[in-house]
Input
Amino acid sequence: MVKKLDKVAIHQTNEQVTTNEIIGKFKENHGFPAVGSCIIFNAFVKGVNREGKPQTALEMEPAEYTLKEMKAVAAEVETKPGVLDVQIHLNTGVLNSGDTLLQIAIDTIVDGPQIGEIFQALKDTLDNVKKRSGIKLKEKSTDGWYYTKPKEKAKSFD
Output
């Protein structure tokens, strides 16, 4: 049985989406025969933090409005020339080193000279999700759990 996959979703650690599921969702779009490529960005939990110290896990805490903002970002990107479809999948909860934390996928009808525009659309999507999603992020190191910005106790995953 194939699970129903929303285009934009927040998943728990045990519900992570595969690349094949993303592509399968794209194929459901009536415009898929015109597709020339799909660009998929995967963000993983690193085993070291920005200071180079060992990091064993992250905890992603979405805000009440996170899903709404991610859907708005996807809808905005879908208005760009050459973009057929956008998917954004955020994994939340406790994620261990090596786990996928974010996937952004763009299905495009462009080729050749216009492909650079789609890479820019991917960058814009990532930047806007990071700015607007309201996610709190905690890291776990050998010293225990801590918010990445203790003063604010919140940080987008940028």
Summary: The helical segments are 19-27, 66-77, 115-132. The chain has a mean pLDDT of 87.
